[in-house]
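Researcher: I'd like a structural prediction for the single chain below. Treat it as a standalone chain; there are no partners to consider.
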Amino acid sequence: MPRRTGPTNDQLKKLIAELKELGYKGNKFAARIAKDLEKPSRIRREVGLSNINRTAKEGETVVVPGKVLDGIITKKVEVACWNISATARKHLEAAGGSIITINELIKNGKTGRIMG
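Model: Treating it as a single chain, here is the predicted structure.
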């Protein structure tokens, strides 16, 4: 059985380390996101915009520790994610929503609904 090595993307490794450090200081939200991002990419969450539209409230911040995929969205929401497809980005911005990185979310001291 192959040995698990963890994420190989240097930016992802750095983000996980920063989130874990905040987790050690008592930030449970950051620790939870770090735990989810450490998972293998085949297990990491993939959330469609339609799912976000169905469950999120207008103006809410949604955190996806994985990839956001395309779908139909009509609500103005802020999405913090590790990765987003090009068409999902276009549809989200057309609906008046915004996209930020998980780094920006944590540095601004914000939290949100974790989806996926």
